[in-house]
Design a protein that fits this description.
single chain, 343 residues, Outer membrane phospholipase (ompla), Chain C, twelve-stranded antiparallel β-barrel, nine-stranded antiparallel beta sheet
Length: 343
């Protein structure tokens, strides 16, 4: 196994080692019909409140079906649709309102404008969210076997987050005639110093033998706005600069300075079965090698089969009009069907 793939395997091990928080379940939510539930607020995101109870397990409550949320024992971060952020405890309020009690007093918000609630100050493991999926297929007539693994782990703090993403596509043939492996590992940090604008930095290593890239190491910085932050979808764009070092197949090592433009969108429904659609486009015009362009497209759709178990379709396209090895392919397109779980 190549070094990049070893690192990615280690990332998968970290992603699945998430523990359960031991916080006392003293939070209270009130449903639209007047029923009250006692438990622990885990997360509000994508229009659903994740609420852990002792008797019924973890519930996913539609945000517009609740009339109040009280979490007076723990500190939480509250984010509104227009990017305002508050840190404090959720104290009693009038129906369809959320009262955040912080160091500067109590702020009362309409529940319709609140898009994110997440606990702050819990254990390290309690701040993690993520997903993991894997797929395998083998065609006897062609003698081709392919393994696909994807992982996404997110660590959140007030106004910032750290993300670790990894993917691996390993292909083997009966006659061992060439390889077509893809691997990627990326660690990124994102912070919102202003209401709707973010700054981010990331480091990435990847390999793509179809495009003649044995190993590409990359670091970069970026800034941009979040244009949509609602209970139905998120949309962000950004621009920045990256530095990379490329080791091509049978060619000399080269260094590049590139611009980067990013489009990132998420759309989702929270009525069961849960469905999500994610699209990420990254465009890299070279600043040190005029005329070279790279494009990375990753799109995925997930639909829930049972509680926390989903089927996923992922489409990827990597394009390089001047790959390190001129004899390599310029385009690498694939479609992956997999089954996975969320945690």
């Amino acid at each position: 196994m190549r070094p990049a793939q070893v690192l990615i395997a280690a990332a998968f091990a970290l992603a699945v080692a998430v523990s359960v928080s031991g916080q006392p379940k003293t939070d209270v939510v009130t449903l639209a019909n007047g029923d009250r539930l006692t438990g622990e607020v885990k997360l509000l995101d994508r229009g659903r409140l994740e609420f852990s109870t002792d008797d019924a397990g973890t519930l996913y409550l539609e945000w517009d079906k609740l009339t109040s949320v009280v979490a007076g024992m723990r500190v939480v971060e509250v984010v509104t649709e227009d990017g305002r952020r508050y840190l404090g405890r959720l104290v009693p309020a009038v129906p369809r309102s959320l009262a955040v009690g912080g160091s500067e007093g109590v702020v009362v918000l309409s529940m319709t404008e609140v898009t994110i609630i997440r606990p702050i100050g819990a254990s390290f493991w309690a701040k993690l969210d993520g997903s993991f999926d894997a797929g395998f297929n083998y065609t006897q007539s062609s003698g081709i076997a392919q393994l696909n693994v994807n992982s996404d782990t997110l660590y959140r703090k007030f106004g910032s987050q750290v993300r670790l993403t990894a993917s691996l596509t390993a292909t083997a043939t009966d006659d061992d005639d060439g390889r077509d492996d893809r691997a990627l590992l990326e660690l990124s940090y994102l912070r919102y110093p202003w209401r709707e604008w973010f700054v981010a930095g990331a480091g990435r290593i990847e390999s793509n033998e179809s495009l003649g890239v044995q190993l590409r190491s990359q670091i970069g910085v970026m800034t941009g706005p979040r244009l949509i932050n609602s209970n139905r979808g998120h949309l962000s764009i950004g621009a920045g600069v990256v530095l990379n070092d490329e080791v091509g197949v049978d060619v000399e090592r080269v260094q590049n300075v590139e611009g980067v433009f990013v489009f990132d969108a998420e759309f989702f429904t929270y009525d069961r079965p849960r469905t999500t659609l994610d699209v990420n486009v990254q465009y890299y015009p070279s600043l040190s090698n005029a005329g070279r362009h790279r494009l990375s497209l990753n799109a995925g759709a997930k639909r829930e089969l049972f509680k926390d178990l989903f089927v996923a379709v992922n489409v990827y396209n990597s394009y390089d009009n001047r790959p390190p090895n001129p004899a390599a392919e310029r385009n690498d397109i694939g479609v992956v069907l997999s089954v996975g779980w969320t945690y």
